[in-house]
Write a structure and sequence with these properties.
This protein is α+β, with helices and mostly antiparallel strands. Helix content is 32%, strand content 34%. The strands form ten sheets. A four-stranded antiparallel β-sheet has the order 13-21-20-14. It has a three-stranded mixed β-sheet with strand order 2-1-6. A three-stranded mixed β-sheet has the order 4-3-11, covered by helices on one side. The longest helix has 26 residues. 24% of the residues are buried. It comes from Caloramator fervidus.
Amino acid sequence: MQNKFKIALISFIAVVFITPVLLTLSLLGGNNDKICKGVYINNVYVGDKTKNEAISLLDAKFNKPLYEKELVLKYNDKEYRINLKDLGVKFNVEKAVEQAYAIAKEGNMLKQVIDRFKLKNNGINIDLELNYDESKIENIIKKISREINKQPKNATINFVNGKFVVKEEECGIKVDESSLISMISESIKGQNLYVDIPVIVEKPKIKAEDLRKIKTKISSFSTKYSSSDINRVGNLKIAAESINGTLIMPGEVFSMNKVLGPRVAAKGYKEAPVIINGTLVPGLAGGICQVTTTVYNAALLANLQILERRPHGLKVAYVPPGRDATISGNSIDLKFKNTTNFPIYIRAWLANSHVNVVFYGANQDPNIKVVVESKVIERIPTTTEYIKDPTLPEGEKIIEAKPIDGVKSVTYRKVYRNGILIKEELISKDYYKPAKGKVRIGTKKVLTQLDKTEEQQNKAEE
């Protein structure tokens, strides 16, 4: 009986106290499927609404008008209008509604009653978060950049009718993409949809004012060639034309291989004699080392720093030992550095059986003179091999290879001021292999008219 009384008493108390709580909760809103009363999103009242109702209300209020707006990007007289929807711009109403729905629905019933009383009296506002698709913005910016960007153009110089003609440089323009992304982001958030596109001015490396310093010849060199080998002369011409007009800025390194590029038949190069392993053999682009040698000597006389140079395996006919330079593929190169404070312009051409190279630069001290001296310090004699050839008439000789003595040489560069030596520099110590001569000598008997007559008589007597 006593237990039944306790149960009845507890039930009565529960009804007396819990019923008002439930009633209060109901009156304050916040049923399981609705947002509590007193809740605002972006100052729009969403209390006592379901999630879907709140989302529909906020979409209509904020996102629909947003989709009709355009972002305007301006550069000079160009305007780029982009619909915000195409940028993925959108108020995240779903996230805000989820936050609103969760308010005053945590803890026990008493806590919820207290929270909802406070909510009803004070209210709460949730700010909408504005989102956008960064990848879409970046893609649009890249497209705009392709239209606006302009590469800088260096000033140019050409030698025309005996004088230099300089064309002015042009600055380049480049959209500052990282800054523009930040500006668009701030613009969207602040609803100020007009943005001036920021650009970076890119200055060219070569300016006309520097090229105008090129006024005078600072060095020149010529080498003589034989015009009998048409293929070789053609190769010389192609190489000289490739070098002609080359500009070397202060501190820049000249590379013969880089300037000439691949020596291939498609460029017009043909086979002519080349030195390989100390022997003259036919090879594509044979002869271009004479142009290389001519450039090398002009660089020496211009008092430039030689970084890389290789001599031939054998002596060459067009310069003294120690004054030649060879190149091969990409492994053997001629390189020198413009150690002056001004640009150097190279002219190269063929005329009167000579390869001519001239370096031009700024006005020089007329009292300075550069001299290059090479000396043979040892000669290595060679021999000639005589080969009997029964296919040649007796006594006839054919020279297949001329003998070339080997030598050791040393080369110096001397700088004079007013005739007084102020600097002497060892340029190279070189060794050139000897090459044997080769002569074929005929051994075939040649019958004279008398021999023929006697031979006929002997046959008749038989």
